[in-house]
Specification:
Blueprint: E1 2-4, E2 9-10, H1 13-25, H2 33-36, E3 51-53, E4 59-60, H3 63-66, H4 81-85, E5 95-100, E6 106-109, H5 110-114, E7 120-127, E8 132-142, H6 143-150, E9 158-163, H7 171-175, E10 184-188, H8 189-193, E11 198-203, E12 206-207, E13 217-219, E14 232-238, H9 245-249, E15 273-276, E16 283-285, H10 293-296
Parallel strand pairs: 1-3, 2-4, 3-7, 5-14, 8-15
Antiparallel strand pairs: 5-6, 7-8, 8-11, 9-10, 9-14, 11-12, 11-13, 15-16
This protein binds ligand MTE.
């Protein structure tokens, strides 16, 4: 079933055919989902998953660009480094510790964490703070699905996330030991519970490649890409605002909120426009909240958006 919010235009017919093929191959990991997205190849399943296009009229970024032009500093700072180096990361077995202000804390295997959770495909715009953008067909589910299961306590106000920190498999950590590893990120609880906040386990109809944050990563489409933390091993519910990696590194440049905002420039470059990755020389105007204002603007009522929170 495909639920379109707008028409999908594919930049290239071959890519579309490949994409549709893959989509049919895994048609609907929902229900059986977890097993088919743990390590290894995606297996054929009989169930269906739905697709929703949240990137109205935007060309889907060619898969080869979305999987070879990456930011994942644990594997190096060059854009091709993650693709070249991330295959050394072992993603099976994988566990996620859920801790802090929850009724059901624990160290959950990926299989347990995802069991019974229905997967869906969502096509989202993705805007990096470096002023480039992509349109990615993610597969996953709302972050709120696992938070609700964890039993968030009423005193919780934030959600903190942490990435795997395993230098033996992550050459960027070895090369750059002074970086404040592990990579950490956070959301306010109401942001985390917003239906757009997603945990992705796949993209382009397949399991997530390691360089894109396998086996599970956050995707928050109205915020700059650095909020979308990869290869998550820990989720903690807290009462106080958690630290976030880029804010620790450069607090004057990267705030906690970091909502996409074309009228609030980075101190060193404009955020008004963005380069379309895989789109040749094309640029486009960046919309407020990356185009998701209808869904999320109410979260920031009364806040001065032209400020680096
Ligand atoms: N997560 C971790 N653990 N380490 C990182 O370096 N980079 C962030 C984010 N998540 C990063 C991360 C940045 S800056 C961006 S733009 C996106 O991942 C890039 O996601 P992509 O490579 O899937 O496009």
């Amino acid at each position: 079933m495909t639920l379109f919010r707008g028409n999908i235009k594919y930049s290239d017919i071959t890519a579309k055919a490949d994409f549709l093929n893959r989509r049919q191959i895994i048609a609907g990991a929902a229900g059986l989902g977890a097993a088919s997205f743990v390590g290894g190849a995606v297996q054929a399943q009989n169930l269906e998953y739905s697709t929703t296009d949240y990137a109205v009229n935007a060309d889907i970024t060619p898969k080869k660009d979305a999987t070879s032009f990456n930011n994942f500093y644990e594997f190096g700072t060059g854009k091709n480094d993650p693709k070249d180096n991330a295959s050394r990361m072992k993603i099976d077995p994988w566990a996620v510790e859920i801790s802090g202000l929850v009724d059901n804390p624990g160290n959950y295997s990926l299989e347990d964490l995802l069991s019974g959770i229905a997967l869906e495909e969502r096509i989202y715009r993705f805007r990096c703070v470096e002023a480039w953008s992509m349109v990615v067909p993610w597969i996953g589910f709302s972050l709120s699905d696992i938070l609700k299961r964890a039993g968030v306590q009423s005193s919780a106000k934030y959600v903190a996330f942490q990435t795997l920190n395993r230098p033996s498999e992550m050459i960027g950590i070895k090369r750059n030991p002074k970086f404040p590893w592990p990579y950490v990120e956070g959301l306010r609880l109401d942001e985390a519970m917003n239906p757009l906040s997603m945990i992705a386990t796949g993209m382009y109809g397949e399991s997530l490649p390691n360089q894109n944050g396998a086996p599970l990563r956050l995707v928050v489409p109205w915020k700059y890409g650095f909020k979308s933390i990869k290869s998550i091993v820990k989720i903690t519910l807290t009462e106080t605002q958690p630290q976030t990696t880029w804010n620790i590194l450069a607090p004057k440049e990267y705030g906690f909120y970091s909502n996409v905002n074309p009228s609030f420039d980075h101190p060193r470059w404009s955020q008004a426009r963005e380069r379309i990755i895989g789109g040749g020389i094309f640029k486009r105007d960046t919309p407020m909240f990356n185009g998701y204002g209808e869904e999320v603007a109410n979260l920031y009522a009364g806040m001065d958006l032209n400020k680096n929170y």
